[in-house]
Amino acid sequence: MYQEQRLAEMMRLLESRKQLSNQEMMAYFDVSRDTIRRDFTKLEDQGLVRRTHGGIVPRQSQPTIPGFNDRLQAFSQVKAAIAQEAAAFLEEGQLCFFDVSTLVLQLAQQLETGVTVYTHSLDNAIMLSGEEPYELHLLGGQFFPKNRFYYGLDTAQVLAKIHFDLAFIGAAGLQDGEVTYDDAEDAYLKEIILKQAKTKILLAEASKCQRTAPYSAGSIDQFDYLITDQAPDLPKDAQVQVIISQ
After folding, report:
1. Structural domain total, the chain
2. 119 and 36 part of one domain
């Protein structure tokens, strides 16, 4: 098991146990004390946990992880409906990319199909870390706490060699048909995915058409489908097929 997978599983365990000890995690993952110490140190460096004598507890100043279940319950009906439309594209055995996005996270929550998922999202990994019919691959690298994703040169190299059946991608902005993001690294990964996926599906509320973010990953026309909640304000010559959730 890779370190990133252990870290995601530790954060999931913290949801129910509220604290983890060195001894517990050594036995749980069947690894050495030094390995667990390095894992705990990395989680602390990322601001996700606080070290205690012989273990870790959630950092209360980071409400997203301690309140993870509450966050899922707070998803609006709009997001759930968009995710449900996206789930209709999934078929057994597909190779999929799940983006860092609250809409894609909602899709991950609904996932019941035996697919293989690659993601750079910590929250997606936590959601999909149970014993389910799907196979999960968490892409590693430096952790970006604001939008909770990993990125590294190795991540880009791995993605550039994979041909995905489906890519489910979110957006920070969609003004004038330009798909934009808050982080340059995240936008770059999207550019790679748009080249590597057979079917590209953008999940975005129509309100994103009134917003723009600093970094562009390309045009709406590079996507096959846009799943949204109401008729979007797109350029008249946009080629993407629009699906409006019910």
Report:
1. 2
2. no
DSSP string spanning the chain? --HHHHHHHHHHHHHHHS-EEHHHHHHHHT--HHHHHHHHHHHHHTTSEEEETTEEEE-TT-TTTTTHHHHHHT--HHHHHHHHHHHTT--TT-EEEE-SSHHHHHHHHH--S--EEEE-BHHHHHHT-SS-SSEEEE--SEEETTTTEEE-HHHHHHHTT--EEEEEE--SB-GGGEEEES-HHHHHHHHHHHHHEEEEEEE--GGGGG---SEEEEEGGG-SEEEESS-----TT--PEEEE--
In this prediction the pTM is 0.70
Q: 54 is in which domain, residue-wise?
A: 3-58
Q: Are both 112 and 188 inside the same structural domain?
A: yes
Q: Which of 37, 58, 79 is the last residue of a domain?
A: 58
Mind listing the pLDDT tens digit for each residue in 146-183? 788 888 888 888 999 999 999 999 998 998 999 999 88
Residue 230 domain-assigned (yes or no)? yes
Residue 63, in any domain of the structure: no
